[in-house]
């Protein structure tokens, strides 16, 4: 067991902590943070626009495309970036500080192996939104905050087919974080309208969602409206 695991175990929380936590009414309502499907085509811009327009709950969109040339990603990004800009939705690039700078994106989301928030800040400037994946670790989240991140992401809270996961935090980590820190938190991993309520109640500021929207049988717009109808969303 490494030092980070030791630290988190030493600060272990009662899993029922979130059940006793009441969302601070002074905190802004929870918003949706959309993540792109793993593959898109030129027509996806219309799909994205319809999803954002379905309800006023989408605050950010992350472009996450793996295994294709960065030049192609940049080509696909431009119309999506325009959709987001016209709707005041933050356009975030996954993993690549260089691509975020090339696109003049609103920000970048970094995994634990994708660079330091300080490096991203230096490259992207003071107004960039920098997020960091922190899995189920309070220690990593505090380190990210100290390094200047604008938000921390915890997960995966539920089973997800989007990417392999080995970390499974309890909702209590969201309650702990929102009680002690003002920095926003993002809940991620298998979140649907049917299972999101405990995460919202526990204090998540954003729900990161991909498949539950893009693969919804009733369509992305209807899925966004279903999230918007949940208590604590707004």
Any chance you could write out the topology, listing elements then pairs?
Elements: H1 3-10, H2 17-20, E1 31-35, H3 44-53, E2 58-63, H4 70-86, E3 90-94, H5 97-103, E4 107-110, H6 117-124, E5 129-133, H7 138-146, E6 151-155, H8 172-180, E7 185-188, H9 197-202, E8 206-209, H10 211-214, H11 220-228
Parallel strand pairs: 1-2, 1-8, 2-3, 3-4, 4-5, 5-6, 6-7, 7-8
Helix pairs in contact: 3-4, 3-11, 5-6
Structure description:
The structure is a single chain. Helix content is 39%, strand content 16%. The chain is an alpha/beta fold. It has an eight-stranded parallel barrel with strand order 1-2-3-4-5-6-7-8, surrounded by six helices. α5 runs parallel beside α6. It is globular and about 40 Å long. This is Thiamine-phosphate synthase.
């Amino acid at each position: 067991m490494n030092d980070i695991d030791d630290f988190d175990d030493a600060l272990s929380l009662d899993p029922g902590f979130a059940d006793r936590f009441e969302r601070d009414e002074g905190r802004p309502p929870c918003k949706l943070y959309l993540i792109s499907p793993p593959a898109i085509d030129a027509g996806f811009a219309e799909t994205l626009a319809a999803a954002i327009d379905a309800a006023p709950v989408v605050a950010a969109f992350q472009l996450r495309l793996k295994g294709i040339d960065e030049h192609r990603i940049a080509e696909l990004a431009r119309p999506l970036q325009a959709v987001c800009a016209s709707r005041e939705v933050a356009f975030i690039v996954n993993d690549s500080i260089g691509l975020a700078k090339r696109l003049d994106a609103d920000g970048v989301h970094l995994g634990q192996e994708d660079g330091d928030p300080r490096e991203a800040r230096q490259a992207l400037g003071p107004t960039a939104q920098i997020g960091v994946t922190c899995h189920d670790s309070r220690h990593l989240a505090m380190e990210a905050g100290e390094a200047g991140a604008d938000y921390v992401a915890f997960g995966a809270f539920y089973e997800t087919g989007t990417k392999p996961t080995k970390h499974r935090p309890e909702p209590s980590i969201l309650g702990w974080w929102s009680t002690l820190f003002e920095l926003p938190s993002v809940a991620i991993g298998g979140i649907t309208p049917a299972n999101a309520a405990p995460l919202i109640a526990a204090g998540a500021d954003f729900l990161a969602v991909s498949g539950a929207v893009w693969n919804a049988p009733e369509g992305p717009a209807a899925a966004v409206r279903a999230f918007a109808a949940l208590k604590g969303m707004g």
